[in-house]
Amino acid sequence: MQVNDFWGDRSVFLTGCTGLLGSWMVAELLRRGAKVTGLVRDLVPKSRLYTDDWANKINIVRGGVEDVGVIERAIAEYEVDTVFHLAAQTIVGVANKNPLGTFEANIKGTWNLLEACRRVGGVSRIVIASRDKAYGDQEVLPYNETTPLQGEHPYDVSKSCADLISHTYYISYGLPVCITRCGNFYGGGDLNFNRIVPDTIRSALRDKPVTIRSDGSYIRDYFYGKDGVLAYLHLAEQMDRK
Questions:
Q1: 217-234 residue pLDDT tens
Q2: Contact assessment for residue 29 and residue 127, using Cβ atoms and an 8 Å cutoff
Q3: 38 lies in some domain
Q4: Into how many domains does the chain fold?
């Protein structure tokens, strides 16, 4: 284990630690010597959190972001300094089928996390993982931070709302919040095979036709998972700067 001057022995609370980005984040925080506590709702045996044995090196709190009491207890009990809120319902197709579940996870889950931090106190930095989908459909591209948040579909709306709620906790209550709006992550450990990258790889490995999902005119940004983790950590390290 490499102890980093900033992260060494720092208490970090992580939601979504079984996911693609979360599992990479756990590994990097452990490498830097942080004390990691992860919120885990479902057991996902194929997550890198378990296959790479990182789960045995962190504190695991059982529960979901929909339960503010569980989050509040974890932040208080483990004397959390830094929070990375990565948990979300991230699949657009699932969001369309189950909008209420998506709103519960993505909107209520965000205000629960922020409210728990406000009540307990002592948290010095909170990074909220949003998506560029929070901007909705825009006529003028690329987006920038002054672009209005105008999601229209369930997933997009959930991210627009979560961003605005995060903003109000920063403005109204002085919580140390930063919001990221990354594009599409890819990389090892992505178990959502309805995403284009893992689905294409799986089809190729099984010698099956690759599904073409559009007319080929769409352009997407892709962001390697570990690069995303390094960006999030760098952002958290810089949050003491005005």
A1: 888 889 999 999 999 999
A2: no
A3: yes
A4: 1
